[in-house]
Amino acid sequence: MRFILSLVTATTVMTSAGVVAAPFSSEGSVTLASNYYFRGISQTEQGPAIQGSVSINHQDGWYASAWGSNIRFGEGSMELDLSLGRNWALDENWALDMGLVQYRYPEGDNETTGYNYMEGYAKLNYQDWQLGLALSDSYFGNDVGKFWYLSLDWQQTLTSHG
Question: Where does the record locate the signal sequence feature (predicted)?
Fold first, then answer.
């Protein structure tokens, strides 16, 4: 498995006193990566990617976000993912995240490719572990049909700032 090295990551967190009024908060990020892999497939033909995101979060756990990256396949050069979901803290160790995401490929989606698609997801978190399930009725590309993706992830913080 190829290790993807994030070269530069800058994250800005805007407080409620700034851009968005309480009970909302917002955040964004910019990442420069050596390669953009999605579910085991390079989206940039083994080349670098610049990626950005912005999210608006409500104190009740609701969120809306947009994430984008350059890509190198088909007719397009960009992926734009729009999501809406909700997080629940079940207790101090357990959390649940459920939502919908639309994967969009401006200039790359047409009747022939059918790249744009919607996906529902659920992620159950326990401490540093995450079990995820994604479901789609019409997965990426025409004639692919129904799709599900099961994932198990582990996250470890390497440094702590603050």
Answer: 1-21
Residue 131 and residue 84: Cα distance in Å, rounded? 19
Q: Model pTM greater than 0.85?
A: no
Residue in the block written with tokens 């401490």: 127
Cα separation, 37 vs 42, in Å, equals 4
For residue 106, is the peptide bond before it cis, meaning its omega torsion is within 30 degrees of 0? no
Question: Of 9, 12, 53, 16, nearest to 32 (Cα)?
Answer: 9
Cα atoms found within 13 Å of the Cα of residue 124, Cβ hemisphere only: 3
Cβ atoms of 68 and 78 closer than 8 Å? yes
pLDDT digits (tens, 9 = 90+) for 59-107: 999 999 999 999 998 778 999 999 999 999 999 999 999 999 999 998 7
